[in-house]
Predict the 3D structure of the following.
Amino acid sequence: MKSIVILISGRGSNMEAILDAGLPLDIKAVISNRPDAVGLETARRRGIATCVVAHTAHASRESFDGALAAAIDELSPDYIVLAGFMRVLTGGFLARYPQRVLNIHPSLLPAFAGLHTHRQALASGAKIHGATVHFVTSKLDHGPIIVQAAVPVLRNDDEATLARRVLAAEHRIYPQALRWLAEGRIGLDANDVVEISGLIVSPGIENQELLVPWE
Ligand code: GRF
């Protein structure tokens, strides 16, 4: 069975969705860069080992990433799953784990990289927004896409209502992507997810699910 560690910074609802999914994965630990992350308590209640590597204890990104890598390497996971982990990782860190770090981003990448994605979507006038699970590369929010879910932007949406709709989609696609990973179904070349074997997709919507608007 493949193994993962999950990195969080706060609430941990994506982590919880992953734990709830009963995936055929050995979840070695949940690591947070914030000691007060609510998700740590959730993980502990589920009997998952937890660990804090506080970024505030480090003067540089390199030093923090070194401590993080040391904590991860003790667990020797196959994959590192960023789930609401709000730190940008250095190229040095990522080079240690090529094609082994996954992230969820609350937009349909490559649109709206960075922070405040729901605000960006509303300001842009987009009618469709969503979430993306992707492999992490040193170009922020730009790695190979595994799966995306789209949701509508509704006329009366504000950041909070849109965030709620996107989060529900996140909770669906992250466990889905990890299931494909656990089953060894994700084919990768150097720069892209080339196939997910056995996946039935609508023509032209490669590797993506399109959620039906529900409001
Ligand atoms: C999610 O929307 C995630 O995509 C984003 O931050 C939020 C974290 O939520 N980067 P949670 O901690 O998983 O509840």
Residues 8, 10-14, 83-84, 104-106, 167, 170 surround 5-O-phosphono-beta-D-ribofuranosylamine (CB under 6 Å). Residues 159-182 form the longest helix (24 residues). The domain at 1-97 is CATH 3.40.50.170 (Rossmann fold).
